[in-house]
Amino acid sequence: MSLITEDNLGSLFKFLFSKSIIKHDDINFDDKVAFKTILELFNYDYKRYFNESNLVEEEKLTSRIELIGILLYRVARYYYLANSESVAGKYSNLGRLISGFEIYFSADIGKGLKINHGLGTVIGARCKIGDNLLIHQNVTLGDKNNMRPTIMNNVIIYSGAKILGGINIGNNAIIGANAVCMENVPDNSIAVGVPVRILK
Questions:
Q1: Is the pLDDT of residue 1 over 80?
Q2: pTM
Q3: What residues pair up with 175 in beta bridges, in sequence order?
């Protein structure tokens, strides 16, 4: 069993960049302080997929492309907060190329993110998301009138949903497939339809 640690995570990233078109001359693949911090947070995401594992196993990590995309978002977010936006952008673009979904590095996402399939999903700039989001494919969290949504804890968003503008999706809410949501959704509610209807 091969474990991912701060000592070898850089080697994985170097390999992934080497198979892409993204220039990476300015990236430090030996940034063990950063990688240790990132892995501590990413472990919560990893456990949404492999609940029995307390450590990140390379074979399991690379078996789920969604997890690679989430990990690369975590790295991009770390470097964005460290004022290294150029490096953040490169990790973000690598995540998009590999996973087929886009998570912008200025999106603020809590722990325990899980993405099922994810193809075509976009989490836009400056979205705010709590813990334990479960999101599916072809979902958009995006802009309306230059404002972005806030998603609280333990939310599920099904495939094709669009959540737009400066609205709040409450704790434990469910957004149904293909819903177009441009209004607040209370805690413990279900939002369905175009435009959405709120079901308690």
A1: no
A2: 0.96
A3: 157, 191
